[in-house]
Amino acid sequence: MKVTVAKVKDVPKGKMIQVQVNGKDILLANVDGTIYAIENICSHAGGFLHEGCLDGSTVECPLHAAQFSVTTGKVSDDTPWAHDQPSYPVTIVGDDVCVEVSR
Ligand code: FES
User: Which fold has domain 2-100?
Assistant: First the structure.
């Protein structure tokens, strides 16, 4: 199910925002003009990734510094205390950001 979650201008390059889709808390991150979506709640202990730091395509959790790729949701080998985050396909339709989520 594809859902419009934001406008492209809401997620400038190098920035992250939090959106809600069907009860899921999702992180949108813009890496060099491409917007990606992964689960926003950290798999370790529930930190909100949108409150962390984005460095290139890596987001660092604000609570215990687990690092994830925002392009794939994969956890870094350097921070094995967390698990991979689900990632969601993103499409841009006009100036809308659409995310595909399961129900
Ligand atoms: S809650 Fe994210 S690293 Fe612990």
Answer: Rieske Iron-sulfur Protein (2.102.10)
